[in-house]
Input
Amino acid sequence: DAKTTQPTSMDCAEGRAANLPCNHSTISGNEYVYWYRQIHSQGPQYIIHGLKNNETNEMASLIITEDRKSSTLILPHATLRDTAVYYCIVSRRTGTASKLTFGTGTRLQVTL
Amino acid sequence: SQTIHQWPATLVQPVGSPLSLECTVEGTSNPNLYWYRQAAGRGLQLLFYSVGIGQISSEVPQNLSASRPQDRQFILSSKKLLLSDSGFYLCAWSENTIYFGEGSWLTVV
Output
């Protein structure tokens, strides 16, 4: 699976959009971009994933560049409860025996 | 809807004692199942995965073992715990996306 690079930490004011970048320059054509987050002492929570097109759900939006070498997770109106470590993972679609490799992620701190 | 449960949530075990963590998934059949570990301040490390009953693949050689006696049951075990086995253990299942359980905190003393 391709490796990803994320900033170690970011701050965001409550109510503002949080834009979390991720570089995955060695991504393959059949690899998806997944985003998870982990709040302290809890299991990682799935947020969103995409292949080529931008995706949006009730939690976030995922913007993938045309060359697919980078992506941005957007939390449109960050709240204090969005404070967590956010992981960007590139992997083949999880079907039979696909395994997600977690890096160190971005620690997002949402402040008042 | 699908749910995943693992237990116990926390446990403190002496060095050399056995371990059994259990995980069950409901609302799906023949899921892929996983055990991850997260040491304090570290990232998640995949320990085992299973694509079916009795089929276990180990990612990292270690003091632990896994078993899948039933389709939706995944067990993590050890015969003799080491101090280095302390950590946060997570069970997960997948169809198109991986979903994680609540986690189990293990402290070996």
Notes: The CA atoms of residues 66 and 76 of chain B lie 5 Å apart. The longest strand of chain B covers residues 44-52. Chain B has a mean pLDDT of 92.
